[in-house]
Specification:
Blueprint: H1 8-13, H2 28-32, H3 44-52, H4 55-59, H5 63-66, H6 72-76, H7 83-98, H8 103-109, H9 111-132, H10 148-151, H11 154-184, H12 196-199, H13 201-210, H14 213-217, E1 221-223, E2 226-228, H15 232-252, H16 255-258, H17 269-294, H18 305-329, H19 333-357, H20 362-383
Antiparallel strand pairs: 1-2
Helix pairs in contact: 7-8, 8-9, 9-19, 11-19, 11-20, 13-20, 15-17, 17-18, 18-19
C-alpha cells in the first residue's frame, strides 16, 4: 500500500512548485495535453500524486520526463494551479531522488551549496594552473597565432578531461541505474524479458539524438496562414544539445586535434566543427535566455535559480571559448592564456555540477525515460 506524505507539498516547494491545493482535479490539463493518452494521464496523475504525497509512485513514474513543458496545461487551468510548473519541479525532485550522493538535492534547494561548489571547483582549476602551467612563450606560430600548448600542454589537459569524464560518467550512470530500479522495482514491479532491452533500444538512441518529444510537446506554430510543424523551441533545444555534445566530444576525445598550435584555414574540419558547436550553443542560449527574460511564454514565466545558474555558466563557457579562439589566432599572447584559464574555471564547475546532478542530466534522463516507458509497455503486453 502506498504511503501518503502530507508534508510532500512543502518539500516540493523547495524544487520550485507552487500551491498544490489550488487543483480540484477537473482534468482540463490532461484533456489539452498533446502527450496524454489512454495509458498516460499527463499531468493530472502527477498532480494527484503530489497532492497526496505519494513519493514512491512519483519516483516509479516517467511522466514528468515525458512532459517538455509547452505550458498549455497551465494556461488552460481554471484554478491557475500551474500544472506545467509542477511537472518541472517534479523533474528537479526526481533528479535528486535518483542521486545517491545527495548532492543534487543540496544544489537544487540551497543557493549557498551550489555557489560554494562552483567557487571551490573554479579555485581548484586556478590553483592547478598556478602550480603546473608551462611557460608563456612569446614565440608565435608560423601562421602568427599563440602557441597555447606550451602554456597548457594538450596531453595534460586531455588527461584531466578523461579523469573528469570518468567521474561524470560514474555518477550519471549510477544515478540512471537508480532511476531504473525505482521504476521497475518500485510499487508496481515489472519483469522485463532480456530480449526487450535490445529490441527497444532504438527508442533510447533515437530520442537522445533527436530530442523529438520537444517538437511533439510544443505544437505547430502558425505563421500567417501556414502551419509550421517544426517547433522553434525544439530547433533551439536541438542546436544547443548537439552543439554541446559535439564540443564535449572534441575536448575529451579529440583534444590533440582540437587544441593544436597549428592555425588551420577556416574551412578545415577542425574549425568547422568548432564553429558549428559554437553556433548551436549560441543560438540555443540566446533563445532560452531571451525567453526567460521576456517571460512572454508560459514555460518561461517561472525560473528556478538553478536554471539561471546553468545558463550563466554555459554562457560564460561559450563567450570565453570564443574569446580564446579570437585571441589565439590574433596572436594576443597574455589575453589568450588568461582567458583560457578563465574558460576552464567556468567549464569545469559547469560540467561537474550540471551533468550528473542538475540541468544537463535531463539530457540523459529524458531519453532513458522514453526507453524505460517502452520497456514497461512492451513487458506488460508480452505478459498479457
Amino acid at each position: 500500500m502506498a504511503k501518503i506524505n502530507p508534508d510532500f507539498s512543502d518539500k516540493l516547494k523547495d524544487f520550485g512548485a507552487f500551491d498544490l491545493n489550488a487543483c480540484y482535479n477537473c482534468g482540463t490539463c490532461t484533456a489539452i495535453c498533446a502527450l496524454s493518452d489512454e495509458e498516460n494521464s499527463i499531468p493530472r496523475k502527477m498532480v494527484r500524486y503530489s497532492v497526496l504525497g505519494l513519493e514512491d509512485k512519483i519516483q516509479a513514474s516517467v511522466d514528468p520526463w515525458l512532459c517538455y513543458y509547452c505550458g498549455e496545461c497551465s494556461t488552460s487551468c481554471p484554478r491557475e494551479a500551474d500544472p506545467g510548473a509542477l511537472m518541472m519541479s517534479l523533474r528537479r525532485y526526481l533528479t535528486s531522488a535518483y542521486d545517491w550522493t545527495g548532492l543534487s538535492k543540496k544544489f537544487y534547494t540551497s543557493k549557498v551549496w551550489e555557489i560554494s561548489a562552483i567557487i571551490l571547483l573554479a579555485t581548484l582549476i586556478l590553483v592547478l594552473f598556478i602550480l603546473f602551467h608551462g611557460p608563456m612563450t612569446t614565440k608565435l606560430t608560423s601562421q602568427g597565432g599563440v602557441q597555447l600548448n606550451t602554456f597548457a600542454p594538450w596531453h595534460w589537459v586531455e588527461l584531466g578531461d578523461w579523469i573528469m569524464a570518468g567521474i561524470l560518467s560514474f555518477f550519471l550512470l549510477t544515478n540512471i541505474f537508480n532511476m531504473y530500479l525505482k521504476i521497475f522495482h518500485g510499487p508496481q514491479k515489472v519483469k522485463v524479458p532480456f530480449k526487450l532491452y535490445f529490441t527497444q533500444l532504438w527508442e533510447l538512441i533515437f530520442h537522445f539524438a533527436t530530442q523529438w518529444r520537444f517538437n511533439k510537446s510544443n505544437r505547430a506554430t502558425i505563421v500567417g496562414k501556414k502551419e509550421i510543424k517544426i517547433s522553434p523551441y525544439w530547433v533551439s533545444h536541438w542546436l544547443l544539445m548537439s552543439g554541446y555534445v559535439l564540443m564535449f566530444t572534441m575536448i575529451v576525445v579529440f583534444l590533440s586535434w582540437f587544441q593544436t598550435d597549428t592555425i588551420y584555414s577556416w574551412w578545415y574540419p577542425q574549425r568547422l566543427f568548432g564553429y558549428y558547436a559554437t553556433f548551436g550553443l549560441t543560438v540555443g542560449l540566446v533563445f532560452f535566455v531571451w525567453g526567460r527574460m521576456k517571460k512572454d511564454q508560459e514555460n518561461n514565466k517561472h525560473s528556478h535559480f538553478t536554471d539561471w545558474t546553468f545558463l550563466i555558466l554555459l554562457s560564460g563557457t561559450v563567450i570565453t571559448g570564443i574569446l580564446v579562439h579570437i585571441f589565439r589566432i590574433s596572436g594576443l599572447l597574455y589575453a589568450t592564456h588568461y582567458t583560457y584559464v578563465i574558460h576552464l574555471m567556468i567549464l569545469f564547475p559547469m560540467l561537474m555540477i550540471e551533468v550528473p546532478f542538475s540541468k544537463w542530466s535531463h539530457l540523459a534522463y529524458r531519453p532513458f525515460a522514453v526507453y524505460f516507458a517502452s520497456l514497461y509497455t512492451a513487458a506488460l503486453a508480452k505478459k498479457n
